[in-house]
Design goal:
The chain has 120 residues and is an alpha+beta fold. Helices cover 30% and strands 38% of the residues. Strands 1-2-4-3-5 form a five-stranded antiparallel beta sheet. A hairpin with a 2-residue loop joins strand 1 and strand 2. Helix 2 crosses helix 3. The termini are far apart.
């Protein structure tokens, strides 16, 4: 009986498990439709993790402002004392903007929720 119960208990997390700790988002309206997102997290595996966090924040913010799309301008990532930080800039717009790095805010926000990445 004890072996059956032990088999139902999930194993404790290991170093290989990805369990990020999201530290928050600061949003700065730079000019009209140009917005900066400062995010911080620990336990990231790579810069792509913190960039995804910034993109999730941008997508939700875009929806909050009543727009449907955003275009990525740039993202800078640094690690300071074990804390990953990203400074990302996006333009937001009601229609699909020109450019290669555009996002549909509704689709991205839903994807973030499914992946457990917080938004604004």
């Amino acid at each position: 009986m004890l072996l059956t119960l032990a088999g139902c208990t999930p194993p404790p997390p290991t170093a290989e498990d990805f369990i990020p700790d999201y530290k928050g988002v600061e949003t700065v309206l730079l000019d009209g439709d140009l917005v900066q997102f400062n995010v911080a997290m620990t336990k990231a595996r790579a810069s792509e993790n913190v960039a995804a966090y910034a993109e999730c924040a941008a997508a939700q913010y875009t929806l909050i402002r009543g727009y449907g799309f955003a275009r990525h301008v740039r993202t800078n990532v640094v690690i300071e004392a074990g804390i990953w930080r990203a400074d990302a800039v996006y333009t937001i717009s009601p229609s699909l903007p020109k450019g290669l790095k555009t996002i549909d805010a509704e689709v991205v926000t839903q994807s973030c929720l499914e992946q457990g990445i917080p938004t604004v």
